[in-house]
Amino acid sequence: MSVSxxxxxxxxxxASEKSTIAERSAFLEESCGGDATLRRRxxxxxxxxxxxDPLLDHPVILQAEGExxxxxxxxxxxxxxSQKPGSLGRLGHYEVLEVIGxxxxxxxxxxxxxxxxxxxxxxxxxxxxxxxGSARQRFVREARAAxxxxxxxxxxxxxxxxxxxxxxxxxxxxHGKTLQEKLDQKGPLELAEILRIGLQIADGLxxxxxxxLVHRDVKPANILLENSVERVKITDFGLARAVDDASLxxxxxxxxxxxxxxxxxxxxERVDHRSDLFSLGSVMYAMCCGHPPFRAxxxxxxxxxxxxxxxxxxHEINASIPDWLEAIxxxxxxxxxxxxxxxxxxxxxxxxxxxxxxQGRGQLPLLVQPRPTRHSKAGGKFTPKKVAIxxxxxxxxxxxxxxxxxxxxxxNSPIDPDNSIGEPVPQPRxxxxxxxxxxxxxxxxxxxxxxxxxxxxxxxxxxxxxxxxPKNIPLALRKAAFGSDAKNVPPEVVxxxxxxxxxxxxxxxxxxxxxxxxxxxxxxAMGGFDRVVRLWDMSTGKLKQALTWEDRLGQPYxxxxxxxxxxxxxxxxxxxxxxxxxxxxxxxxxxxxxVPGQRMNQVAFSPDSQLLAxxxxxxxxxxxxxxxxxxxxxxxxxxxxxxxxxxxxxxTTLATSxxxxxxxxxxxxxxxxxxxxVDGSNVRWVGYHPLGxxxxxxxxxxxxxxxxxxxxxxxNASRFRDLEGHTSTVLTGAWRADxxxxxxxxxxxGTVRVWDLSDGPARSQAFKLVPPxxxxxHAISLSPEGRYLAVAHPAGIALIVRLAKQGEVFSVPKS
Length: 815
Fold this sequence. Notes:
With 815 residues, the chain is of the alpha+beta class.
């Protein structure tokens, strides 16, 4: 029997006004007249209305595929028509590309923002509900509640629109996995991960609480770990309420997830921000042991345990958890809100202090005293004011356990070479924090609407190279790099890796032409004129592996190296047109993709690691499907040599340079996109700012050198800033992940300049690294956290330059 949408809507509206479950049930029993299908449809809508809706704030990748729900019957009639092939329609200035998910109350669309030139996600209320005042108001209220919180660790919503046929919100398309998925895959986490993730959750909750919001559904499934360095993003504010409305729903139904909710929430009492802190404690408990603290065979049984029982002590499940961490979690999970740590900011400070201690940057914080009882909320009270130094035995045990767990991670021990595939390794890309509007005022609106990783948090990340000691640099390598000045190695140089292949002579046949840090910063890959890719362990400065190219004829040299962002592959291009792939961790040779007999100037992976773009002397660019090992499309630039290329941070656009013109291409179609950048120079390097709205270029002209680095406003195709300081042409550069630092190298001035773009006029610091008799500086690479710079020296070696200490942000003093 078919059920009309009108009947479902009418009954849903009437039932939603009932104040109790019993009243609803009686009303539906009478109104549906035994029509089980009609009742089921109405009850599904009521359930979606009362509970957290995954539509509201989950990232696109987490939307259910093919799920059958009432929203499935909705059409896309609210979209305007579009003339673009393949488009589903338009919604304002958004070109809708496809449907990527459905939730209980609406639909999720992938779209292209024509104003900001980027792919975004649109989440719209179902047309069936859009004419309903209460449903519409709730959708807009909850969307605006989420949008009000602007913080690194809370998912960003760019806009909330309520003027059209259906209200909708606009947010970024992001990639990652949930903490729940990570726990399902790995089980209990390492101590450093628990502290790092817990600290970021607490920071995000503190931001929400400052806005007067209580999340009410903090759980691992609502904690997104972005690809790269696994930056935490708190998602799903579908249950968020202002503090003065953070109790039950109008229906009297308990909202939230039983296994992680607070006792006051489980018992239907009024809640405040401290309810989120109990949930945070429950999430940290799950990170310690791999499962939630309260489990039972039914929801009522779980709720009873949450309200009355204490979870099993963590040390009985995971003996490696330090006493001090168990004490913190114990206090967070106190049954009475008054017995918990009182603010998320305090929790963040406490976890941050412990993390700093593990990193060797501070004293062990005062131990949090456990609650007097673990078994019921009838036990004695404990408040944060009772925090005190624990017994000496507890202090010593906690310290030793913490250091024992931290040491292997801090040392960045080499990856198991037997792991032939390897897990994706983290890197600081596509992770977010607000950039001040004043920073790039001339660039356009996309800066203020986008975000980057926070500079200080980036600086706090550990690096394999932190273990390097300049005292261990061999004398032979000091002489190879600095000749007669071997005793006066610049203090910033903490290591020299490689072999003195040319024995002090300016011999081009031994030069390292390309260099690349692995995405986790543990390995440095080098390649050049001797056809060998050498992998150096950054924690020791020792050779890890040498990858040879045995089947190549003649004397091709390696011209470009690139790691895939997921850390699984290493690609190399040579001067005779070969593209070689290796498994990054094991070094297993995966073969040659193509041998066309012409030089490949550069290879670059797309941000999702699925595509490999190759710039060729012939005047075209090949885009390879890495999995299929086949050319997906060829972009023809003309007959001019393509010197360099770069994928935009979102992977939708490819920038290429040939004959003094930088062009932009749609990766999906191969069509040229936007305006060209023309300045007459032979651009040899292009680099996207991490936000994607600025492009840096450098190169030379046929009649002389271009000594500056040019910064371009991509949207307006205009050059808005020149960075001047080099005395020779620049062939290479690298942005730091926060977008506030740029490193460049002069080809013949032997100098690396590091540009501080954090505020005001650009300032630079010069590092003189190559003596006058060895003046070919072709390649540099910046470590993922931006603290170390590897410089390919003409002697077949690489200098590792420390720009700042861990926890410090590189800066150039203002003059």
